[in-house]
Amino acid sequence: MPAIVDKIAETLHIKKHEHPDQSSPAASSSTADPSSAPASATDAASTTPVFDHEKVKVFFVLGGPGAGKGTQCANLVQDFGFCHLSAGDLLRAEQNREGSEYGELIRKYIREGQIVPMEITIKLLENAMGAELAKPHTTEGWEDGRGRFLIDGFPRKMDQALKFDEDVCLSTMVLFFTTTEEEMLKRLLERAKTSGREDDNEESIRKRFRVYKEQTMPVIEHYSKQGKVATIDATATIEEVHQKAKEIISKILAGEIGHNITA
Ligand SMILES: Nc1ncnc2c1ncn2[C@@H]1O[C@H](COP(=O)(O)OP(=O)(O)OP(=O)(O)O)[C@@H](O)[C@H]1O
Ligand SMILES: [Mg+2]
C-alpha cells in the first residue's frame, strides 16, 4: 500500500506542474500585470503554495458532524460570493466521474475502509480552486485574479492542514461552528429522514464524533495557536447563527480581525 501512495504522490506532483487551469485568466494573459497574478505551480518552487494567500482567501469551515457547516456555507455564499467547496462532495464526484484517473483509487480506498490519501483530496481541492479562479468573475472579491473560498469539512487531520497551507494556499481563517453533541445528534437524526447519507445513523454518528474529537480538534488547536480561529456558537437558530457568521466574515474581509474571536 505505501508503494501505491508514493506513486500517487509522485504522479500528482508531476501533474501539478502540468495544469494550466490553476491560474486565473489574469495570470495566463500575456497583457496581465504579472504582479497581479496569483502564484502558479509552474513558476513555484516546491515549497511555494500554488495560490497567493494575499489574493486568494481560504476559509476553512470546521465543526462537529451536524454543527451546521453546510447550512451556513450556503448562506455565506449568498452574502459574500464565496465559492463553497466540500472535500467529501469532491471525492464522491471524482469517484463517479467517467474517465477519472483517480476514481478507481478512491473507490478502492473507500471499499477497504481506509482514508483516501490526502494527496488526492488536496489535489481535488486545488483543481477545483484553479477552475473557479479561471472562470470570468465580476463579483466583489474576484477581481484581478482574486478569489474567496469556503472549504467545508477540511482539513480533518493535522497532516492535511499542514500540507494544504504549504502546497496549495495559506489559509486565512478557520470558521469553527460549535455546539453540543446532544444537539448535533438530534439534528443529524432529523436530517437522516431525508438526507440519504449512509453515515446519518446513530452508530456512524457516534464514530464520527470520536474521530472528530481525536483528529479534527487538534487542527482547531493548531490554528488557534496561530490566532486564526473564529469560534461561532451554532446552538441558536439557523438565522441567528448566520447573522453572527456574517458579521465576523465582514470584519475579517475588511481586515479588522487578525486574531482568534468568539461569537
Ligand atoms: N442552527 C441550527 N438549528 C437547527 N437545525 C440546524 C441548524 N443548523 C443546521 N441545522 C440542521 O442540522 C442538520 C445538519 O446541518 P448541516 O448538514 O449543515 O451540518 P454539517 O455540519 O454540514 O454536517 P456534516 O459534517 O455531517 O456534513 C441539517 O438538517 C440542518 O438543516
Ligand atoms: Mg456538511
UniProtKB/TrEMBL annotation:
Molecular functions per Gene Ontology: ATP binding; UMP kinase activity
Region (Disordered): 9-47
Sequence positions that bind ATP: 66-71, 191, 236
Keywords assigned: ATP-binding, Cytoplasm, Kinase, Nucleotide-binding, Nucleus, Pyrimidine biosynthesis, Transferase
UniProt feature, compositional bias: Basic and acidic residues: 9-21
Binding-site residues for a ribonucleoside 5'-phosphate, renumbered to this chain: 92, 114-116, 153-156, 160, 197, 208
Membrane-spanning intervals of the chain: none
Sequence segments annotated as region (NMPbind): 86-116
Alphabetical list of InterPro entries matching this protein: Adenylat/UMP-CMP_kin (IPR000850), Adenylat_kinase_CS (IPR033690), P-loop_NTPase (IPR027417), UMP_CMP_kinase (IPR006266)
Compartments reported by the entry: Cytoplasm; Nucleus
Entry superkingdom: Eukaryota
EC identifiers of the protein: 2.7.4.14
PROSITE patterns tied to this protein: ADENYLATE_KINASE
Domain characteristics, as noted in the entry: Consists of three domains, a large central CORE domain and two small peripheral domains, NMPbind and LID, which undergo movements during catalysis. The LID domain closes over the site of phosphoryl transfer upon ATP binding. Assembling and dissambling the active center during each catalytic cycle provides an effective means to prevent ATP hydrolysis.
Subunit structure and binding partners: Monomer.
Family recorded in the similarity comment: Belongs to the adenylate kinase family. UMP-CMP kinase subfamily.
Name of the molecule in the record: Uridylate kinase
